[in-house]
Amino acid sequence: MTVLDHCHKATVQGNKISIRMLEFLSTSEHPPQGFGDLAHDFLDVCRNMWAIEAGLKECSRTRQHLPPKMMNELDKKFKTTQNDMQHLDQMLLRYLEYERRGTMGKIQKGWRSMFESNDVGKMRDALSKTKEALEMAALAFQWSLGDDTKIDDSVGIGYTGLAAVLERMDKARQRPPGTCGSHGASRSTHSSSKANFSEDPVMAQIEHMSTLNLDKPAAYHRGDVGFERKDSGREPVASSHRGNAESHRGHAASHRGDGASAYAASSHRAEVTSLRDGASSFRGHPSHDFHPPLPPLPVNIHRSSSSMYGSDHSISHNAMHSHAGTPSTMATSVAAGSIHSDHANDYSKQIRPGTSNGVSETDLWEDGPVPVVRIKADPATMPRWAPRSTRGCDTPAMLAALLVAVEDQNHRMVEELLDRGVPPDGPNDNQCLREAVRRHDGESVRLLLLFGADPNGPGHLGVTPLYAAVAAGFYDGATTLLKYGANPNSVTGPVPESPIAKSIMDDRPNLTLLLLKYGGDANHTMVDGETILIRAIIKKRSKKLIDVLLDYGADANGKDSEGATPLFGAINSNRIEVVLSLLDHGANPNLPGPKHMLWPAVHKPEILQLLLDRGADHKKTPGIVELSTSINNIKSVTMLLKAGADPNCKKDGVWTPLCTSIRDNRSDIFHLLLNNGADPNLSSAEFPAFKCVTHNRLQYLQPLVDAGAKLSQPKGILETAVQFNNVDAVKWLIAAGVNPNDRVPVTGATALTTAIKNDNVDLLNLLLASGADPNGRGEDWPIIVAVKHPQMLKRLLPCIAEPRAFKGIMEMAVVANQLESIKMLLAAGVSVEDRNGGVFSPLTTAIRERHKEIVYYLLDEGGADPNSPGEHLPIIKALRRMEGHDTEILGLLLERGADPNKVYRGHNAIIQALENGDDHILKFIVDRCVVDVEAKDELGHTVAEIANTRGSETTWDILNGSS
Fold first, then answer.
1. What are phi and psi of 182, to 5 degrees?
2. What is the pTM of this model?
3. DSSP state string for 398-431
């Protein structure tokens, strides 16, 4: 709320107090000593407020900005003024109640005065100090704006009426003009009898005003002469004071007499007594006459903001809070319901929202610790009022009328309907109460609860009034509901959350504190499984709110439905101040929630250090140093090492910090780990030296060797460098003395075989020049590996003393389909019939793999024997691997001298053709040779017998043609 809003709020409140003063002057036969002077002092304070409000409005209109220090001081003074006015209002309510109770009230008043000091004197002292605090600011604004400091017309009827009555009283007592605001002047008291009171024209005027309707509905505006009614869609309900003290007492008693006739009489008075009539006594006194101009600015007062600051004074240690809402809402509230009936006034001071039990919105969130206050709400002790009659008042029309009155904030009508017996819950359960809450109408909330509205009723929407008050940010309404027993932890109907959870979600710390004071559960769990403490932390609510939750019993170790603790949420939110607060409230830094607190803390070094200092055990987080290394957080690594963490501890049983620093090229962390005892020979997914080779971190090899790394344990680092084509590493390792013939323990590969396999001629030459053995076996013999790579074989063959010693190498070259390798091997003296494993000949393998080009080369250039068996006879292999009627290889073999009648392992070409049942192939063979029908298979059956059992007449014809 802005400074201007506070000023306007105090001004509206002053108008309400003016009306109460008028009512008291009209009903009291013997006002307390000094009451007239108190009224004058009160008006002086109000005039200062008018001048300041006009000045602030002008600054706002012209977009001028006052110094922040000046605005802060003014805001403090306005709050002090509001507090004083609230105490004055309560004092007036008490005096009015004494007057309405007749003789009993007078006895109570006298008894009170015997044991208590003078309330009027105390109030005058407080108002005098407040006036002095505001006077400099008012003078400065008046000097800059002139005399145009009139109050807003919408709230001025109380001021004008009070000013007019006080002026007439002063004239009647021959009071010198211009001294109404003097604090030191002596004023006479009301000591005349009732008869004299009635004979005095001024007193008669006051008595006449007691019958006027001083409440000013929003449908009226004030002119210079009287009050005129604006056009409106509905007729306003005009309220009036009851005629005299006896009528008040009669209404406040146990409702003797006919309630309906009383209501009719009240309505008749409202229709007869209009505001225009009520203002007729003020004719001849224009509105500005009621606000005499401030005295001229003294010459020694400079236009400096510092002159506006004075000592603040408040008559109460607890700040008071008036009705919340916009200025227009406040004006409507004052106009429609400032002067309540006797039974309403009887309890208004007891349940004034936000002013009792030390719970005030204005002083909840100031600097300093918030004390833990637990208030046990006892609805049974709260004020209740029974309606005069309940017959025939629960009709839909009456219920709708109550709802309309609440919506219009017509408090007089709300009170009258409730007093006639209309149920306070409205047409739907608690609809009236929720509507009053939605409109921030504290007076309607009070009245509805006074007449029995259920503060916990969820209604047809499932929304409790307290939940609605929290959602609307209505502090005063929430206070009243809690006093009447509203449950801050209830979850009802379709609304998924409780009021206290809603206050956290909507970031309303004052309401959260209020709910906690009235029994809110600081460990409440929301529907999504989060506790309100965790929600407050992750939603970045203020540390003070979190401290309040902890002070009110929130479990600092309480987990949500997913196992997360508040400390875990605070760390992930990077809120070190909350982490400290949680630790101070007993949070366990070693409690997994869902994992150990050090894991998320490594991302926030300051929090990590705090946890380590407060007892977090790094031994319960094996691998924490590796994680810090992997996120490149040298601060966290340093803190952990200083705390005694093991630099060789593996994360997930695999990853070491040293290898991670090499992998991520973190030079500073690498050297930090080595200097703190990291083992250069401890394997991670691979050894540190191997990691340097695979990730091209050659700069770390020498520091590792200096720290004790063993390049030959395990063997294979040179082969790894070749595999990753790291030429610089190969050269460095060879220079460092690594044996180029070392074999990898698992695969047996050597650097030479890997270079051949990778077809890397440069590394092959480098290794051969560095002493690599071309005859040394790796995963296989180098020459056998090289047949798949003709270029590598060409480089390697001159280094091989006897290529023929490697049996089957020719057949392997055929399998690799490398014709160039076959040519080089033949040129090196390897036999064309060199069988692999003593079985597989190059020719039969070429036929099997359908390498036609190699078949032609082996028969024509290599001199391969077409009748030399390998897996089988070449012609048999050709028949078995034939695709369709592709007879190219078969014809080539027959042309090069293959014998179809030669039997090998019980088969020849004729028998194979008969088994295949292909007469076309059989005829192809028969046309090119003479068939031996007496040749036998492994079972002794001749070709003729086989043809007789399997063949057809066509087969016999083919065979007979040949024979």
1. -75, 130
2. 0.57
3. HHHHHHHHHHTT-HHHHHHHHHTT--TT-SSTTH
Q: Which amino acid makes up residue 593?
A: G
Look up residue 371 and give its two tokens. Answer: 């004390």
**β-strand partners of 651:** 655
What CA–CA distance (Å, rounded) separates 218 from 215? 10
Identify the sign of the CA torsion 801, 806, 809, 812.
negative
In angstroms, rounded to a whole number, what is the distance separating the alpha carbons of residues 550 and 548? 5
**Strand, coil or helix: 515:** helix
What is the crossing angle of helices 245-252 and 102-115, to 10°? 100
Segment (H or E) for 753: helix 751-757
**Whether pLDDT at 632 is above 80:** yes
The encoded tokens of residue 593 equal 């929630």
Contact yes or no for 803/834 (Cβ under 8 A): no
- 3 state SS for 590-655: CCCCCCCCHHHHCCCHHHHHHHHHCCCCHHHCCCHHHHHHHCCCHHHHHHHHHCCCCCCCCECCCE
pLDDT, tens digit (0-9, with 9 covering 90-100), for 399-424: 888 888 999 999 999 998 898 888 98
- Output DSSP code: residue 531: B
Distance CA 444, CA 435 (A): 9
> Quick check: 596 and 627 in contact, CB under 8 A?
no
Identify the CA nearest to 812 among candidates 852, 791, 783, 792. 783
Cα–Cα distance, 574 to 570 (Å, whole number): 6
Measured CA to CA, the distance from residue 424 to residue 429 in angstroms comes to: 9
CA distance 894 to 900: 8
Position 254, amino acid: S
Q: What is the pLDDT of residues 697-718, one digit of tens each?
A: 999 999 999 999 999 999 999 9
SS (H, E, C) 373-389: CCCCCCHHHCCCCCCCC
The span from the CA of 77 to the CA of 393, in Å, is 48
